[in-house]
Amino acid sequence: MKRLPDAKQHLGEKEAEEVFGWILDGETSDEDVARFLVDMSARSETSEEIAGAARALRTRLIPVEAPEGTVDCCGTGGDGHHTLNVSTAVSLVVAACGVPVAKHGNRAASSKSGAADTLEVLGLDMEAAGKSAEKTLAELGICFLFAKNHHPAMGRIQPIRQKLGVRTIFNLMGPLSNPAGVRRQLIGIARPAYVPIYAAAKAKLGTERTFIASGDEGLDELSLAGGNELADVTGNDFEMRRVVAVQANLPHSPVEAIRGGEPEHNARALEALLSGTPGPYRDAVLFNAAATLIVAGRTDDWTEGAEIAAEALDSRKAKTLLEKWIAMAI
Predict the structure, then answer these.
(1) What is the extent of the structural domain holding 270?
(2) What DSSP line would sit under 204-220, residue for residue?
(3) How would residue 256 be classed by pLDDT, with cut points 50, 70 and 90?
(4) What domain count does the chain have?
(5) Residue 25 falls within a domain, yes or no?
(6) Is residue 85 a known part of a binding site?
(7) In a 3-state reduction of DSSP, which class is residue 104?
(8) Number of C-alpha atoms within 13 angstroms, CB side, residue 106?
(9) Has 130 been labeled as part of a binding site?
C-alpha cells in the first residue's frame, strides 16, 4: 500500500494526478484516503489539485460518443440545502430545446436524493440507461451517464464518501470528468468564494465555454434567493461577474421554497414541474436552463433563454422527452 502525503501541504498538478491515481487504483487504504480527503477539504483544494485529480479520473473513465455541441448541467453537491433536483430537470428542459445533453450524475453522497435516485423512481433503469447512453443521446438528445457505469475506478471511493457524509474533492472532480467529453457546461458549486479557484481549474483543463456558478447562500446552482457568483470560462481563461434572477425576468424566492426530500418526494415534484405546475421550482429550473442555453450558444440573453426553456415546459416537450427516454432505456 502506498502512503498518501500530508494533505495539509499543497500538491502540484502533476503530483495531484499521481496521488489520485493511487487512490482510484486502490493502492491506498480506505482509512488513509478518508483522512486525506477530510484534511484537504479543511484547508480548501487548490486549482492545481482539482485539475490534477480530474485528469486522473478522466484517464480511467469509460467514454461515450457524443454529438457536436453536447452540454452538461450539474452541481458538485454537498451544499447542505437538500433542494429539489434542479440540474436534472434543467437537463430535460434543455434537451427538449434541441440541445443534446449528456447528464453526468450519481446517487446521493451527502444529500437526500441524487439525480440517479430521482430518475430511478421516475422509471429510468440506471443500468439500461448506461448501456443505451450513446443511442439515447444520438436519437433523443439526452442520456444519463451514471458514475457507477462510466467511472469503475470510483467503485471503491463511493462507500468512503457515503461514510464521510461531507463534500470532498470528489464532488469537484465529477463535473470535470464527463464521459462524453463535453466542452460546454453549467457547473454549480457550493462555495461562492471558491468560484474563481474552480474556474481556474476548469481553465487548466480547457473548455469552449463553461459557467461556474454559486448562490450567495452556498447553493450549488444559480439561486433565486439573492445574488450569484459566476465565472465565464472560455478556452484557458475566465472572467467573473454577478448574476441575479431579475436578469432572466424571474422573481426572487428563498431557498426554502425549493427544499426537497427523499427520492420519491423529488420525483413527484419533477413530474409536477413537467406537467406545467408553476412556482419557485419552475423558476429555478428556468434560470439555470437559461444559463445552460447561453453556454450552448442558443442565445446570449438571459430573458430569452428563460423564455425558450419555458416553452419546452409549457408545450410538454420536456415531459414527452422523459417518457420516450424511459421507454428507450430498457
Answers:
(1) 71-146+170-328
(2) HH-EEEEEEEEETT--S
(3) very high
(4) 1
(5) no
(6) yes
(7) strand
(8) 28
(9) no
Please give the distance of CA 124 from its chain centroid, rounded to a whole number.
18
Q: Is there a binding annotation on residue 174?
A: no
Residues 6+ apart with CB under 8 A from 152: 60, 62
28 is in an annotated binding site: no
323 domain-assigned = yes
108 in a known ligand binding site = yes
159 inside domain = no
Distance CA 171, CA 185 (A): 16
- Under DSSP, the state recorded for 5 is P
Helix (H), strand (E) at residue 141? none
* Tens-place pLDDT, residues 9-39: 999 999 999 999 999 999 999 999 999 999 9
Instruction: Confirm whether residue 88 is marked as ligand binding.
Output: yes
Residue 55 marked as a ligand binder: no
79 is in an annotated binding site: yes
Q: Annotated binding residue at 257?
A: no
For the stretch 161-209, pLDDT in tens is: 889 988 899 989 989 999 999 999 999 999 999 999 999 999 999 999 9
CATH code for the domain of 292: 3.40.1030.10
Return the C-alpha cell found at 285.
Answer: 429550473
Q: In this structure, is residue 55 part of a structural domain?
A: no
Residue type, 223: S
Q: Is 78 annotated for ligand binding?
A: yes
- Whole-angstrom CA distances from 42 to 8, 147, 168 are 8, 25, 9
Annotated ligand binding at 105? The verdict is yes
Task: Find out whether 237 is annotated in a ligand binding site.
Answer: no
Do the beta carbons of residue 41 and residue 173 sit within 8 Å? no
Helix (H, G, I), strand (E, B) or coil at 241: strand
Whether 83 has a binding-site annotation, put simply, is: yes
Is 215 annotated among the ligand-binding residues?
Answer: no
pLDDT tens digits for range 110-141: 455 578 889 999 999 988 988 899 999 999 99
| Residue whose C-alpha cell reads 409536477 in the numeric block | 272
Q: Is residue 103 marked as binding?
A: yes
